[in-house]
Specification:
Number of strands of chain B: 5
Order of helices and strands of chain A: EEEEEEEEEEEHHEEEEEEEEEEEEEEEEE
Largest sheet of chain B: 5 strands, mixed
Oligomer: heterodimer
Shape of chain A: globular
Radius of gyration of chain B: 12 Å
CATH superfamily of chain B: Beta-grasp domain
Strand content of chain A: 35-45%
CATH topology of chain A: Methylamine Dehydrogenase, Chain H
Shape of chain B: globular
Helix content of chain A: under 10%
CATH class of chain B: Alpha Beta
Structural class of chain A: mainly beta
Order of helices and strands of chain B: EEHHEEE
Radius of gyration of chain A: 19 Å
CATH architecture of chain A: 7 Propeller
Distance between the termini of chain B: 34 Å
Chain lengths: ~375, ~90
Amino acid sequence: MAKKTILFVGTRKGLFLLTSDGKRESWTLSDAQFLGNLIYHVQPDPRDKDKVVIGAKAGHLGPTVYHSNDRGATWTESTSPPAFPQAAEGETNAKAVNTVFWISPGHASEPNKWYAGTSPPGLFVSNDNGTTWEPVKGFNENPRYPELAQFDGTPGGQMVHSVIINPADKNHMYLGVSAGGVFESKDQGKTWDPLNKGCAADFMPEPDPEIGHDPHCVVMHPQKPERLYQQNHCGIYRMDRPDNKWIRIGDNMPKEIGDIGFPIVVHPNDPNTAWVFPMDGTEVWPRTSPDGKPAVYVTKDGGESWKRQDKGLPSKHAYFTVKRQAMTGDNANPMGLYFGTSQGEVWASIDEGNSWKCLASYLPEIYCLRIMEYED
Amino acid sequence: MLVHIPSPLRSYTKNQSEIQVDGDSVQGLLANMDKSYPGIRFRMIDEQDGIREHIKLYVDRKQIETLNMKLNGTETIHIICALSGG
C-alpha cells in the first residue's frame, strides 16, 4: 500500500486539494471546488481517513456545513446547519449564525460527533457526522455569555475557535473566543470556566481581567494533553495542567520580531517543539511579516528559546499574512509543515521548517490548511 | 406563484431559474420552497426570520422587509442577490 497525503486548502473563493505521495516532494493541485464560496475551515477526520467536514458560506448566502465520505471527492450539505434557537417574541438579543468558522472532530470514542464554532460566538455539536447540528446550551446559554458581547468588533467578527477535546477524557474540552478568552469545560460542554490567568490583555482598561482576552489559536499536544500552547493577540503562551496560569514564552522571542501572530503548531511527537508565524503587531497592526521578511520561528524546549527558519522564503519585500487556521503539520518523520498566505501561496517544509518551497501560487486568500494522510 | 431564482441558489432548484410555489404568505411560500428544495430557505433567511444581508425579496417588484406579508397567489416573486466588491 502506498502512502498518500492530501493538503486541503480552504480559501476565500473555494476549496483546493494538493495531493502527494508519502515523500511529499511533488504535489498536484486540483481544480477548484465550491468556487466562489468562503471556506473557513476544513477538518479531515482523524477517526476515519475517508471523512472530511468543512464550514462554508457564499458571499450572498447564509452559512452551512458540508461533509464528505470520500476524501473530498463528493460533498453533501448539512440538512440542519448550526443555528441559534429562534428568539421569543420581544427578545432583543436574538443571535443568528453568520459564519461557521471552526470545525473539530469529537473524541475517538464518539466517532460520529463533531463540534462547530461560529461567529457570533456559538458552539454547536453534531452527533451524525455533520448532517444535523444543535446548539451546545452549556456554552451558548451560559450565564456569563452576555459578557462576551462587549468584546465584539474584531475585523473578522467575534468567533469561537480552537475547540479542543482532550484525547484522554472526552468530557474535558477547551475553546477560544476572539475576543473573549480561553474557556474550559470538564463536563462535555455543560459548564465552562475562564482559563486566562497570566495572559495579557493590554488592550483592556482593566489590567488583569478574568475574560476579554484575545486568543488567536490554542493547541493541545496530542500525546501530552496537559501541555497547551496559545498564540494570543498579546503574545505566545504555554500552560501545563493542572497549572492554571499561562506563562508568556513569547518573551523569549527576538525583540525586533515580537511574539504576535495568528497560528501555532505543535510537533506530533515532541511536546516541547512548536512553530509560530510572527506578524507585525505594532502601531496600527499591519499583521504582515515583520519588516517584510517572512519567517517561521521554532522552539524545541517548550518556549525557552526560539530559532528563525526562513530558508527558501523571500528575503525581503514580502508581506505575508498567515491566518490562524492556515498553518498545519503532518505526522510524517521528519514532520512536514505547511502554511498558506493571504496572497494565495502555499508553502511547505518537509524537514520540520529548516527549508521551504512554494507549492502553489495565485490561489485566492487562504483561510485554512489541513492535512489528511492515508494508505491506498 | 412564479418565483425567480438567482444563480447562487440554483444548485438547490436543479438549475431552474424559475419555479412555481404556493403559499398564502411569504413565510408560507418560503416554507413550501424548503419542502421542495431542502436547505434553500436557510441560505436566504436566518434562524430569527431575518432576510440575510445580501438577499433582497421582491413581491410584484416591491421590496419587502419582513416575511409576514399575505399573498393571494397571483404575485410574482423575485429573489435578488445583492453584493458588491471582490
